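Good morning N.,

You mentioned wanting to compare the apo and holo forms, so I went ahead and generated the holo version with PXG. This is what I fed in:
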Amino acid sequence: MKIYINGKFYEKRDAKISVFDHGLLYGDGVFEGIRVYDRLVFKLKEHIDRLYESAHSIMLKIPLPKEEFIRQIIRTLKENNLRDAYLRVIVTRGAGDLGLDPRKCIGNETVIIIADKIALYPPKLYREGMNIITVSTTRNAHEALNPQIKSLNYLNNIMAKIEATNSGYEEALMLNDQGYVAECTGDNIFIVKKGELYTPPECMGALSGVTRETVLGIAGRMGIVKHEHVFTRHELYIADECFLTGTAAEIIPVVKVDGRLIGTGKPGRLTLKLMKRFHELTKKEGTRY
Ligand code: PXG
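and this is what came out, ligand included:
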């Protein structure tokens, strides 16, 4: 496997950046996770747009223009010649000193890591659905660190994940600081009630997920009424269906939340339909390389 760092390719064992990089020292940087299905890069432009928006918000100047960045991603894919892949794109603040002032950092490090697969959850859970639990770690408040920024600082989500796995659950439901449903640790959340689709609006602490947008688009084309609307855990408990979305997770059904069965306790009909449509879309849409 060849790893891209600042324009050059390195073997995995030689792919290294400075221990003074503020990405390591402070989680100061941004990233994206992108999937490739049979040589089609799924929603590449959307991921790159979000990467640049995250960078803009934290005042990190990405050293390449967007079009050039996309060319380097395609170059990395060609170099590795994989049909299906998972790309991790990272831009760090660069090497600085042992103080957190980013003005001391020289040059950004741009890293593209490519893996031939990513499996966030065991395959069984895609067939049978997940059992998740609400954790006490709330999603970052937007005025502290906006959840829209896909930064290298994921401790908020990691703390939630630890809480869930400590209790024997695969995934954590995160609420925002007002107690409304926000999202899970690396996924957006959807519910279905009376045939209509609901997902929390971004201002509730949900990342503007690329898969979330894709699912809303598919639902729109299927004529399903959809809402970006705030909801509580009660509304989740009494939902007919629930599922999570993310680049790594794709679409995964949820059948139990905090010990309450969701609907029949089996993956819902609309969830299964959306999963099918989503997989069809990944086979035909994307940037070919
Ligand atoms: N919320 C959060 C907090 C995320 O990190 C999503 C929602 C879904 O967004 P996308 O754009 O992917 O539909 C994410 C994305 C991992 C991993 O290694 C996590 C994500 C993406 C890729 C890898 O756990 N999360």
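The radius of gyration is 19 Å.

Happy to go through it together on a call whenever suits you.

Best,
F.
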